[in-house]
C-alpha cells in the first residue's frame, strides 16, 4: 500500500477548490488530468484491475497485438482510460481462440463505419462538462487557461518584433480609451510596415491587424456594417462571401477537413436508416454534399432517401440561389441513383429559423450540420433571448441522430478587448503561416481576404455587429452539455482518414489531433479548427415535433 | 534472448502510487499494440492515442510557453519560461532583450523520452514536466521535437539535437548574466538522455560550451545481457524484448547494440578522454532493468576523467518523475535545481 495515495498528494484532485455543483467532475485525479487523462480517483482501483486483465489477455493472446490496430478496430477518446481499456478487452473476448466468448458484450468490430453509440454508454457519466475556466489545478492542461496561444515562428527581425509590441501597446490603449495615443501608434506602425517584409510572416498579418485597429479607432460606424449577413449590407456582400469562402476552401485544408469529418460522422450515424434528412446551417455552394451523396450511393444495401435542407441568407434581386444549388445537387444525386429532395430555407439569421420550416418527419434520421455557424449566435441583445439558446433549443426538439459542429479553436469571445486582440493576433498569424505553403492563385489571395474579414470583425466590431465570436472546444463542450447534448466521439478511423486527406497537401505542418473524442486540425502544434459530433440527451418532456407555428415573412420553399 | 512473458504485476503495484501505476501501465499496453513484429510502427494510432497540449503565452501557474518552428526544416522547439513579474507584459514575447543582464538564467534543452519512437515535445506528460522544471529551477526550458524512429533512424535524433543546441546558443534573447551568453544545459529522460550525451559529445568536439548534462534513466544498451536486465525483465513495466525492439528501430539496419549510439563506452565506443565534456548528473532508477548499462556509463565517464554525479534512487521505477506524488520526484528536482543553479 503506497503512502502516496493520489487523493492526498500535492497538487492532486480537483473539485476541492471551486464549489462544484457538478459532482461529475469533483472526483477526477488531478495529476492524471495533467497528463491528459480523465480518471476518477474513486475509479482508480477499478481501472487498474481492468488494465491487469487487459495485460493478461494480451500476454495470452495468440494473435499479434498489433492486429488490434488493424483497420477494423476503432479506438475512441483515449483520455478516458477506463472505456479505452474496456473496448480493448472486448476485442479480446471476440478473438476466436478464446473459448469463453461473452456474447453479451457489445460488438464493436463491424468494419470501418462503426456506430459510435456503443461507446456512449461508458460515456454517459463522462459528458464533457468541463470545469469552468477558473477551476485551475496545478499544471492543469485540460481546462483551457484564460488565454491559450502559440506563436509558431519566432519573429527574427527586429522590426517584426517591434511591430508586435506596437500592436499590443496600441490595443492596450484602445482598451483604456486613449484613442489619440492609439492613433499615433497606428501612424508609427504604418511607417514601420514600410520597412518590413509584408509579403509573408508577421509583416503580412500585422498589416491586417493595423487596418482593423484603424477602423476601430477612426471609423467605428463603418466597421459595424462590415462583412457578413448583417442587415443593411447589400447584395454584393453575400456573393462576395461565397466567393471568398470558395477560395478559402481551395487554398487550405480547414474547410475540407470540416466537410470530410462531418460527412464521415453523418454517414455512420445514418447507418441502417432508409430515410435521412440533413439540415445544413450554411449551404453556400453546397460544397460539402456531393461527397456525402456519393458515399450514400455506395452504401452497402443501397442508398437511403436523402433530403437536404439548406439554410442561407435570402438572395436579393429575385434570384433564388439556394434553389439553384439544390438543383445542381439533385442532378448529381440523380446521376448516382440516390433519391433526393432539396428544400431551401432563406433566413437572415439562424435564430429566425423555425422548426416548421424544416419540415422534418418523424420517420427520418436527422443530421444537423453546423460549419462555423454556432459562434455567430453568441452575441446577444439584452432585450431578447440569447440566439444560441433559441437555436439549440429547437435543435434539441428535433432530436437529431447527430449534430456535427465545426468551430474555430480559438478564444475570440472574451470580454476584454486586449485579450481578444492578443489571442487573435497569434491565431491568425498561425493561420497565415499555414497559408504560406499554398501556391494557387487567385485562391491564396482571396483566402487571405476571407481571413482578413474575420480579423476585422473580431478586432473592430462590437455588440451585435461582432459575430465572429469564436470559442474553444472546452467552452463548446460546456455549453452544449448544459443545453442537453452529449458527445458522440469521433474515433481513430476518422483520425486516420483526416490524416490521409492532409497528405494530399504538400505542406508538411498541418496536424490532426485527437481531443477527447473530437478532432482538431492545426498548423504544427497549434489546433485551429475543431470538429465534434453530438446528440440530444433524451428528455421525456420534449416529443419530436413542431412546437412553434409562428408565421414569418420568410421565403421558405 | 527473449525475456520472460510472465506477468508480474503485483510487484510494480507495490512500489508506485496507484495513479502512477495506471498511467505507466496504460502507456505500456498501448505501446505493445503500436509495435509490430516486423519492426514497423503504427504511427497513426500512436498520434491518435498521444495526449497533446498546445502552448500558452499567457502564463498559467507562473509559466508560459510558445513554439518555434524552423521554416526550412520543420523542427519544432517548445520554449518554456517563467512568467514576467509585471502582468502588463503577459502575452508579449520579449525577443529583443536578454533574459537578464545581471543574473544567470539557465537554459535547459530538454529531449523527451519515448525510446526514440514515442511522444512529442507537446505531449501532455512532457509539457507538464517541463513546466515543473521551469517553476522549480527558475530556468528556461527548450523542449526539442526531434524526429523519431523507426521512420527516422540514427543519427536523425542527434542531428536534430545538435541543430537545436546551435539555435539556442545563437538566440540573444536567451542570454543572461554579466557575460551575456546563453547558459546551456542538456537534459533528457530515457532516449532523451541518450540524445543529450551524444549532442554533448558533438558540442565538446566543436567547442560549443555546454555547462552540464542531466540524464534521467538514460537509454543505453549493449549486446550482452546484464544482470539487472535479467533480474528485472518484465517486472516494472519494461521488458528486454521491448528494449530490443526500440534499438532495432533506431540503430541503422543490421546493426547490433554495441553500436556506439547505444553503447558509447562499449567495444566500439569512441573515447572522450581529454575532451571538454560538461559535468553530468546521471539519475538511475533502482527498479529499471537498464541500470547496469547506466552505471557502466557513469563508470565510463569517470574513467575518461569527466565529472559525474550519480543519483541512485533505489526504489524508483521508470517514469517516477511524471507525477509529483513521490519522494523521488522531489529529490530529483532538488538535485536538478542545485545542478543548474550552483551558486544559489
What does this structure look like?
- The complex is a heterodimer of chains A (557) and B (344).
- Chain A is 41% helix and 11% strand.
- By secondary structure, chain A is of the alpha/beta class.
- In chain A, strands 1, 2, 3, 4, 5, 6, 7, 8 and 9 form a 9-stranded mixed beta sheet that branches.
- In chain A, strand 4, helix 14 (387-398) and strand 5 form a beta-alpha-beta unit.
- Chain A is globular.
- Chain A starts with 29 loop residues before the first helix and ends in a 21-residue tail after the last strand.
- In chain B, strand 3 (107-111), helix 4 and strand 4 (140-144) form a beta-alpha-beta unit.
- With 344 residues, chain B is an alpha/beta fold.
- Residues 1-6 of chain B have low confidence and may be disordered.
- Chain B has one domain (24-83, 97-340): 3-Layer(aba) Sandwich (Rossmann fold).
- The termini of chain B are far apart.
- The radius of gyration of chain B is 19 Å and the shape is globular.
- Chain B is built from 10 helices and 8 strands.
- Chains A and B meet through helix 1, helix 2, helix 3, helix 5 and helix 18 of A and helix 1, helix 2, helix 3, strand 1 and helix 4 of B.
- Chain B: It is found in: Nucleus.
- Chain B: Keywords: Gibberellin signaling pathway, Hydrolase, Nucleus, Receptor.
- Chain B: Belongs to the 'GDXG' lipolytic enzyme family.
- Chain B: Residues 108-321 form the Alpha/beta hydrolase fold-3 domain.
